[in-house]
Amino acid sequence: MVPPMGRTVPTRRSQVNRARVRFAVVFASVAGALLAVYSFPYQEHGFHENLFAWYLAGYARAAGAVIHLTDPLVRVAGAQIVGRTSLVIAKNCDAMDVNLLLSAAMIAFPAAWSRRLVGIAAGVALLSVVNVLRIVTLYHLNVRSPAAFELVHGEVWPFAMVSLAVGVFAVWSRWSRPLEAGPAAQASAADA
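User: That's the sequence. What structure does it adopt?
Assistant: Structure tokens below.
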């Protein structure tokens, strides 16, 4: 078929470039919106802040239960873990930023919505479990080697969490890609 005068047939390369630009724009938009909602300064003692405090306390309870296996003196009060050392689970200790970025990438990727939802659920669950293990290791590190705590807390674990999220996305994107991995097939999968 010959295109009308003045129009060109999109090449595979232009289709791929258009798909990449679409992914980047959707990812940036969704990630920006999700991170803005997460970072918004809600009214103190309002519904959202109370919900967030309950959520952080849940992380503390989960980590406290694991820590209790090796330190029976540990107890949890709200979002604080107290034992041979103390940790407070605060905003940004919950790996929510990594969860939101992973979710935004999966939403932006051209895949069937059923696969996106499975990926988001499985990815967030995995990152949440690893984050509980992160809190447990930070507790024990603060007991045994407090000098190393800041490096591991501020550099090593964040890098590990982001690396894990990138790995989860890479595996998921291969699994969720249609059999015909061309841009047309990916575009039709994105509409599904």
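The mean pLDDT is 88.
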